[in-house]
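WARN retry 2 of 3 for item q-0093 after timeout on previous attempt; input resubmitted unchanged.
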Amino acid sequence: MDRTAQLTARRAERDIAYDPPPVADSLHIRAARVLEANWTGTSTVPSRGLYPHQWSWDSAFIAIGLRHLSPLRAQTELETLLDAQWGDGRIPHIVFNPSVPLDAYFPSPDFWRSSTAGRAAGAPRTVQTSGIVQPPVHALAAWLVHRADPGLSRARGFLTRMYPRLAAWHRYLLHRRDLGGGGLASVVHPWEQGMDNSPCWDAPLARISPAPARSFRRADLDHGAAEDRPTDLDYGRYVRLATEYRDGGYADGCGDFAVEDPAFNALLIASEHALAEIARELGATGTARHARAERLTAALIERMWDPAEGMFFCRDVRGAGLIPERSVSGLIPLLLPTLPPDIAATLVRTAHGPHFGLGDTTRLAPSYDLLGEAFDPHRYWRGPAWFNTNWLLERGLRTHGERERADALRTAVLDLAAGSDFAEYVDPYTGEACGATGFGWTAALALDLLHDEPARDEPPWDAPARDPHDTTKFAVNELKGGDRG
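OK item q-0093 returned
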């Protein structure tokens, strides 16, 4: 029986040495139950109702949390996702479960037509996927999953199989998606960046004629309040962009929407650093990848940093340059270890200043400027606080020596995850749950913050591999025991 299932089936007793000892309703056990309930046998859905398939960056974050319960499941999560990788290297943002009815989610597989419309780009024939991508957290996730149990990882050849796929993924982004010519990756649809209806997209989307409302049916409104979700006008534009991309054979560089986003590129850079560590684990030096990550960091600063405003801004490749909207995306580069100290210090001040209020008016950083005209504390990415972005900020604060602030954010994430029943996102002022509850990455990232706190003072690409036989903290080796049978 898998150890995750054991944890959720009964109260753990002396066979697991926890600190503190677990109780039936402990945060650890509750988070494990969410991941068990969302597990399909080969991957984890973000939410059974609202998101019934496998999502790309969700799976990366979920694997980061699963590694503390079951390194084998965490490896399987990433392997399942990358089994759907396209020939051109892209990792699709959705891998569809054929047992889920078509009307359970829109756009469904019959909209994307990946195996036919994506044939020239090398879409797989045996699995249906979407044709767009999501932020490249995957190499970072793979490296963290490996470190959770290096012995199991080496025995299964996990990194040996992952490395060429991840390298192809990065090549796709750095070559096919360098639409601005500055060396950074562009997104060609708001869904690719992950912050779907951020005010950052309002100006670029205004150029897009929406698809007729009668041409699609929104399944998301069956599971979420309309006032919390993107508007029908936004959705019509999303559908138009996706339709044109599909009808163009998923070829890059032809559409009217192309934006360089700081969070997307910061995650690509962080994953380049992680890929360098994976290369070193496999016997190479990794030097070239670290150097590439540093070049990309310099390009990120050159193209998106605004010293007067103290943060990074999206760049509209098809429009007039920087988009003057303050999004949490512009804080995520704090994650990068080679960010100049003055820029890192400025980002910390911005995060804790009036526009985001972190540690003052808000416990978690909101997704959008508290003082912005478009701010809405409940509407998806236009103001609510999300757990994955705050997990990234916590790592960034710790990477740059802001231990007290990182500790405060860690505590806030854990408190609000517990108090909201692992909500998809929360009101940044009140912590009120919004969207789905029992959300996969919220549970997974809460688990990650519960584990290995001392090791979190080092960047993930430099931190030493943990001894899998160390039983002093949460008995990680005991949790792994059920994976090997």
